[in-house]
Recover the amino acids of this structure.
């Protein structure tokens, strides 16, 4: 690998040839721009079976290829790929992202000028509805005291139009894994993604650990990208629901400090209430996904305890940015689903 590489844009692909064909050209053009110094593109393939690798070799010879021997999921797929890349910064970019012409320089400049920041992300808009924020990251990610996540521009399933209301760059709790820029040294020192997650919530878990290590996470709205979403698993997939419920509980078990088990107990109760709603609505696969997620979590408590103990020497402070001290779920439904981020009182913002 080129030791002069400053920024490696790394796309992890699994059977996403149609996205590569649609979006990769703009990524290559943006990296080739004279405004971007020391950047390169790497495509890591999770043993795709749709001809992605053959298409890459034929059409994108300027991109470096890393070929994994099986589908390791998002978490370990990136872990195993980034071990092979020498760069100061990694930009983890989903294959279903359409970049804009000047998306990368603001991220690089921000990281260069803010050494206390471990990771950042651009503003995410919806590819299929470009005037609106996109679910997976919007204008920066946050969390409530019970582990429910939300964004500037997206509270639960309510998504705002982007009218420039969140164009101020701020520190956040988490940066989206759809377009995550991170210092390579800190990615590895923190232990990378938790491979046991497979997919979903792993970037939030990592951002939480980076805060525990004393670093900040930021949103950089000067950079804008457009996200399709649901590229690997559809948004209505019971499998995605299962992973989100299970991994969220594991994340809290590893990273919470005060009242950890009380908060997890309350969260389990709230999850159970949502499962009952799924059951009453006839969404039996969703109901089963929640139950199976809880069962899997209880089976992994010992693993969470082991990971928590191993990480403890790196902790220098509590995570204290981007936390809503109440329940975002209660606030959302109490308001009649009309709440926006600007209505919330957030910690240390």
């Amino acid at each position: 690998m080129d030791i002069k590489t400053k920024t490696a844009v790394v796309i992890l692909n699994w059977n996403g040839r149609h996205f590569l064909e649609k979006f990769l050209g703009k990524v290559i053009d943006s990296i080739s721009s004279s405004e971007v110094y020391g950047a390169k593109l790497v495509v890591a393939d999770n043993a795709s079976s749709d001809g992605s690798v053959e298409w890459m070799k034929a059409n994108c010879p300027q991109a470096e290829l890393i070929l994994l021997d099986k589908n390791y999921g998002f978490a370990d797929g990136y872990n195993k790929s980034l071990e092979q890349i020498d760069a100061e910064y990694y930009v983890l970019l989903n294959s279903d992202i359409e970049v804009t012409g000047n998306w990368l320089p603001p991220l690089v400049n921000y990281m260069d000028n803010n050494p206390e920041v471990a990771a950042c992300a651009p503003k995410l808009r919806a590819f299929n509805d470009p005037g609106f924020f996109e679910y997976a990251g919007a204008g920066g990610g946050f969390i409530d005291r019970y582990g429910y996540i939300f964004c500037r521009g997206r509270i639960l399933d309510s998504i705002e139009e982007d009218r420039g209301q969140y164009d101020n760059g701020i520190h956040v709790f988490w940066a989206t894994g759809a377009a995550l820029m991170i210092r390579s040294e800190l990615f590895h020192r923190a232990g990378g993604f938790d491979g046991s997650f497979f997919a979903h919530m792993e970037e939030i878990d990592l951002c939480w650990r980076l805060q525990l290590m004393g670093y900040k996470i930021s949103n950089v709205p000067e950079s804008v990208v457009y996200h399709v979403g649901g590229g690997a698993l559809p948004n209505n997939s019971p499998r995605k629901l299962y992973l989100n419920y299970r991994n969220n509980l594991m994340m809290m078990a590893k990273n919470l400090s005060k009242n950890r088990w009380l908060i997890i107990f309350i969260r389990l109760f709230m999850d159970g209430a949502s499962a009952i709603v799924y059951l009453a609505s006839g969404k039996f696969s969703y109901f089963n996904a929640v139950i199976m997620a809880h069962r899997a979590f209880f089976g992994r408590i010992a693993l969470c305890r082991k990971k928590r103990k191993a990480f403890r020497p790196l902790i220098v402070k509590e995570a204290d940015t981007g936390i809503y001290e109440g329940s975002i779920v209660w606030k959302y439904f109490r308001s009649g689903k009309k709440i926006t981020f600007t209505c919330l009182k957030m910690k240390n913002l």
In short: The radius of gyration is 19 Å. The longest strand covers residues 216-227.
